[in-house]
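Can anyone check this?
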Amino acid sequence: MKAPPLLRLALLACIPSMGCSPHLLRDSNLPEVAIPERFETPEGPGVETPDAWWTSFGEPGLDRIMRIAFESNLGLRQAWSRLEQSNAQARIAGAFLYPEIDLDAAAARTRSDPDGLPASTSDRFAIGLGLTWEIDLWKRIANRADAAALLARASRADAEQTALLLSGSITDLWFAIQEQEQLLVLFAGQIDLSRTLLELTELRYGQGVGDGLQVLQQRLQLESVIAAIPEVRSTLETSRNQLAVLLARTPESMDDEGPVDATPSLPELPPFPTLPSPRDLLERRPDLRAAHDRVAAADLEVAVAIADMLPALRISLDGRFSGDQISGLFDSTIASLSGALLQPVFDAGRRDAEADRRRAVLQERIDGFTERFIVALREVEDAIDRERNAVQLLEQVRVQVGLAERTLIESRIRFANAQIEYLDVITAIGALQELQRREIGLQRSVLANRARLLLAIGGAWTRDLAPPAGDRPLDSSGRIAIEIEGSSHRNDES
């Protein structure tokens, strides 16, 4: 007794669930390197850093610019567009898991006009439904769909990494702008002091106490301070221009909108943060998550390449209704069900070479993932070491600034008492002013290094990011599709 057609179709539908992968996938999510237990941090208790790490510096203007950048930065918008492309590619790959159904309709009229006989016409109407489906015996299609989903998830992580690097670039420019603004304030004070001293030396010269050389020396000292201003202004303007590009604005529009309201004073260094474990970086850093997903996708592609060398089973179902009139269209029915088994026999080694290529791609991505993780560890360690030494140097320079201030005071007193030459006063002024400028530069360097440390340890805040409203990619149901959660099958060998 033959099985009913519906039963046979149900049995065919169960075949994909019985498929197996001919390739055993990797069972490790870790890079192929020994992972240390912790980072060597400075002594003393650490503090929890806010998830939005730049807020730890206490700069409201920086917070506002960061929000603008996440909405308008063109590099980040391009990353969201690449994510949309990857999401669409994943949906395309996943569609092959389901049957493809086509509907066609046709209508024809035939006129016959034989010699000596009246002309006649005949009509023919037809409508057909066709179904084609490849049975996924070796999970070739499922693995390819999962690989595409993983690549889409990696694209999401790429977008997060773009946002992370963007936050670092904006913070660095913010501190650069504050540094130059603070230097301009410092120069204004130094110019006032130099002019006061110049007036005193000119007064002494006019009274016959001093000589012309002292006046020339003080004028030269004043001009040296004034000459440093153009370079600082140039750096300030170029930093503002770079910030304008990151905000997707022209440099001219920045003057009109005025989004940069940096105070001309660098903030103090926040307390040292509590660092995660090195293993936690695998989840906190988007670049490491993207590298891992690309390893898993390459592993699945190896399974796809191997499955491509094995037999493929395709079925097709055609049904057609036809008739001379539309009202009788369904009176005549023709249906057919067919299946085909395709086994590659000779391809000059093309499929085998493709499997070898995919294995090499997998190994390349494993090594790249491992290298990226090692570099991440180094970035954290480098930032810790630089901060330890930079903070110590800043403290020493601040001590020198205090000594230079006292030296200048003592030099002016001694010169007034004719105990030293005015050149000694000029030397004291130059030493103090140089140390004051160096102190500002070192303070900016310390803050920038702390920003690099916080960037290197990543965070969870990037997972909450979304494309700007109106630019968000949609999934097949019309909902916002920020990330495709690709299932990572761990199949047994066939």
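Reply from J.R.: I decoded it. Residues 140-206 form the longest helix (67 residues).
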